[in-house]
Fold this protein.
Amino acid sequence: MMDTVLDVLSWIFLLGGAIFLLVGAIGALRFPDFYTRLHAVSVCDTMGAGLVLVGLMLQGGLSLVTVKLLLMFYFMMFTGPTAVHALAEAAMQSKLKPVVDEREP
Amino acid sequence: MEHLVDIVLLGLLMITGFAIVRMRSLLAAAMLTSIYSLLSASLFVVLDAVDVALTEAAIGAGISTILLLATVALTTDEEKAPRHTPLLPLVVVIATGAALIYGTLDMPHYGDPAAPIHQYVAPTYLHDTPGVIGVPNVVTSVLASYRGYDTLGEVTVIFTAGVGVMVLLGYRLRRCNITGPGIRNLIVLRVIAKLFFPLILLFALYVLLHGDYGPGGGFQAGVVFATGFILYALAFGLGNAQRLIPRKLLRIMVAVGMLIYAAVGIESMLLGGKFLEYRVLADDPVTGQRLGIMLIELGVGIAVASVVLIIYYAFVSRHCQAPEDM
C-alpha cells in the first residue's frame, strides 16, 4: 500500500518535472528576445530538475542515494538561478536591449 | 531500453558535432564543445565507466570550456573564412572514416565475453584486486598499482603541458586586478561563490580520498580542486585569487606532486622492491598497496590541480598590463 502511494507520488513529481522542462524548452525556442528566453530556460534548472530530483528521492527511499540527490537538489537551487542572473547581468552590460512592446496601452 | 538511451545520446552527439562545424561564432562553438563533452560523459555513464565519465565532465565540460572561452576572449569571436576549398580534407576524412568502419567489421561484438580484451589481463585484475590490492574500486587498482608506470607517464605529460604553457605564455608575473567576465554588479555571484568555494574543495577531497571505493581519484580531484579556485577568481578577481594561491606556490606544487609520485617508486626500491612496487611499503602487503595508492593519488591530485591553475592564470592574465621589468 505504502509502496504504491510512494510510487504514484514519485511519478507525479517526475512527470511534473518533465512538463516544466518541456515548457522551458518551448519557451527558449519561441520567445522573442534573449531576456524572455532566459526567463523561460531558468524554469528548467529550478522547477524542472528540482521536481525530477524529488521524484527520484521518493524512488530512492531512505538511503545514501537520497542523501546525494538531496545535495544535488541543494546545489541546483543555488547554481541555476545564479547562472541565469550572471547571464542576464552580462547581457545588460554588453548593452543588449530588451524587446519592448511600444504600443500605447 | 538501454539501446534507446544509446541512440538518443549518440544522435545528440552527432547533431552537436555538425552544429560545431557549421557554427561561425567561436564563442558558440566553445559552448557547444562543452555540451559535446557532457553528452560523452553521459555516454560513459551508460557504459558503466563512471571514473572516465567523472573525468570527462570535469575536464571536458568544465576546465576546457573555461580555457576555450579565455582564448576566444583573447583573440576574436569570428571564425576566419577558409582560404581553400574543403574538398581535399573532406575526401581524407571520408576515406579515414570508411577505413575505420571497415576495421570494426573484424572486431568482436560489444560486450562479448569471449572478446580478447576480456580474456587477456582483465580476469587477473578482477580476481586479484580484492585480495592483493585490497581496494574495492578495480579501476583505481589498475590505474594506480598494476599500471603505475603508465600513470606516472600521464602525470609527466600533464607536468610538461604546464611547463610548456609557462614557457609560452610568460613566466614573469603580471600585475593583475581584473574581475571575472566583465560583470560589474557581482554581489549575487560573490555570495554564491563564497558559499560554494569551501564545499567544492571539500568535494575535491572526498573525490581524492574516496577514489579507492567509488569513482574518482587524483585526476578528478585535482580538476575539481582547481575549479573551486577558478570560481573564486571569476567572482573576486584574478588578483585576489593570486593572493590566495600565488603562482610561485603553484610552480613549486607542480614539481612536488610529480616528486611525491616518483618518490613512492624510489622508496619502494630502497625498501627492496621494484620501482612502484607498493607492497614493500608496509609490513602487510595489502596495507602497503593501499598506502602506495593513496600517496600517488595525492601526488597526481596536487600536480593536476596546480597545472590547471597555472594554465588558467597564464591565459587570463594576458588581459592584464604587460609585465614590469624587474
Summary: Chain A has a mean pLDDT of 89. The CA atoms of residues 23 and 82 of chain A lie 20 Å apart. The two ends of chain A are 56 Å apart (CA to CA).
